[in-house]
Amino acid sequence: MNRRSFAQSVGSAVILSAIPGSSALTQDSAAPKTSKVMAIAAHPGDGMFTMGAVLAKQIERGGAGVLLSLSLGERGAPKDIPLQQYGAMQRTATENAVRLIGAEAIFLDYPDAEIPFNEESSLRVCDTIREQRPEAVVTHWSGSWHKDHQNCHLIVRDAIFYAGLETLAREHPAHAVSKIFYAENWEDAANFVPDTYISIDPVYEKWMQACDFYPMWRGQTGFFRYNDYYSSLSVMRGCLSGSRHAVALMSDINQRSQRLQSL
Q1: pTM of the prediction?
Q2: What is the CATH number of the domain that holds 162?
Q3: Which pLDDT score, from 0 to 100, does residue 254 have?
Q4: Would you state the pLDDT for residue 221?
Q5: Would you say residue 22 lies in a domain?
Q6: Based on the structure, what is the number of domains in the chain?
């Protein structure tokens, strides 16, 4: 295999311009433009930095997007800002960011670093999924060193199961999510193997502007160079998928099926 064929294969990854609502991965021509994608993140910044471009791309194609944050990420505050004030800043940043890309923001009220994985949290997310009725969900991968991210992954897994359970009576009727994807996050990198690439060229600048509402993106928390990391990552993923900028997702191993007419 030469360099050109290797780049074209991208490890047999599927290259999409948006996430389809169908149960099998398909090329762009089969992706419905009216489907909704829900991003579910432990903290608002995680959601916008790693999943916001996916929402923006789906919306740009005529679909819909919603960002569900389980907490406000208030414990990421710098020393000179009280936690409650920083949490309010995170909420405001998220509201501004989703407004810019055309999405919707929903917040749960779990304390940062204390997001519990239990029946109560799973059912709350289940109820939101049933209310919003997304075709696809994007969330954290399990291979994370961050407790909240690990629990978010587990919560979403159970919430999707509960949401589709016809015999589970809740306020809203059952809804089956067609696809679940895991976002590429520097904190969730253990055993993350991308297999789905989405070109974000038409929405890249808008996504960058949306991320810039967050103090941590602008370097005001001094913890990590989020701007440099995720903008550079989009270039690298674009190189592999034949575009200037792209995001890479990992599909759930239980949903990796394709209908092939021939080999």
Answers
A1: 0.90
A2: 3.40.50.10320
A3: 87
A4: 84
A5: no
A6: 1
